[in-house]
Amino acid sequence: MTQQSKIKPILDVHEKPKLALWITLSLQHLFAMFGATVLVPILTGLPASTALTTSGIGTLMYLFITRGKIPAYLGSSFAFINPIIALSTTHNIETAMLGAFLASLVYGVVALFIYKFGVGWLLKLLPPVVVGPIIIVIGLGISPTAVNMAMYKTVNGTKVYDLKYFLVALATLIITIICAVALKGFAKQIPVLLGIVFGYIVAVFAGLVDFQPVIDAPWFSLPKFTVPFITYTPEWNVAELAMVPIAIVTINEHIGHQMVLSEVVGKNFLEDPGLHRSILADGTAMMFASLLGGPPSTTYGENIGVLAITRIFSVFVLGGAAIFALILSFIGKFSALISTIPSPVMGGVSILLFGIIASSGLRMLVDEKVDLSINRNLVISSVIIVLGVGGAMLKFESINFELPSMALAAITGVLLNACLPKKDKE
Fold first, then answer.
1. Residue 351: exposed, middle, or buried by beta-carbon count in 10 A (0-12, 13-18, 19+)?
2. Is residue 240 within 8 Å of 98, Cβ to Cβ?
3. Cα–Cα distance, 221 to 267 (Å, whole number)
4. CA-to-CA distance for 23 and 164, rounded, in angstroms?
5. Nearest Cα to 409, choosing from 129, 3, 130?
6. In terms of residue numbers, what domain contains 338?
7. In the list 106, 223, 227, 420, which could disulfide-bond 49, CB 3.0-4.6 Å?
8. Is residue 6 part of a domain?
């Protein structure tokens, strides 16, 4: 039993808070996930309201499939940002959603294998020397998106440098950094949300916000759903397969979250209800999101942080947050307000957020004591990073198939780890 797990919870997993406290605690989890969950659809061109819908329902599905034993919240995954943008540009958004659907099937296959054979084979397939560099690639690969949003505005289809944009982005970035470093308690867990809020205020004074869409929007509005198999007839030109390898990263991220969550709550979720069940639940939520046109989902570290601080582990609180997210997705004026957030505000926040993603990959290498003085480890990590950040791709024009850099880097890393021989001391 770890030191953290000896701490008595204020509310355990199956305990219900009183109504007023329940609402407050659920809103707290909603705030924790909100900034990052909304950021992904803004960057990829997906409706933010749809992301809130799929996030809320996906979390409820997760809680149901895990038998209400794991207090977790599911939000938008950053790992799929680049593939969604790439497929939406070269094909259309429906193709990207089909790719996410296929990636979700990998979760089901992995869950079945874990149920039958345990988790050891997966950890050997995806050791830290592979996953760490891939996470670095995810953060660095999408960093140009953040910088472009911070500096450029579009005039007649052309990107033009705008000093006001950059100053607003810098102000937003500084505010977000101060919130992340100087604040304490729950506020320290929501620097992204606070950065967006205060950055938005700066943008208002800079004259970059147009409130007319909020005034014109109705109070009640259905989210815009994109159902691939209805609004789009699949060509199955294998372009969709480009997103499948990204599941390699997100599944490993899921395992890491379950380990941390088990440590925080003091229960071994890898055994009860089992890692196979939590991976299946995560994949089911991702499949549901792809079928409605929302960004692929993943368990959220931000909400795990809230659990660690508050020691309130009730699944009813997480379920309440999911319901609030669902309600917000149908408020038209709220969705319109999100759409008025200027790109430099999101760019300023993203500079820090994407850097943190890359740094977390570096942290994994350090925490897992990956020895880069060993040539095998150095080769694997080096090739993954250069292929991923350098923009390498595998393209077969005859079958209209393109494997983007992130997916190519992930597959190459797995193959190198499987093929390169290990010495006894390794």
1. buried
2. yes
3. 41
4. 39
5. 130
6. 19-133+143-351
7. 223
8. no
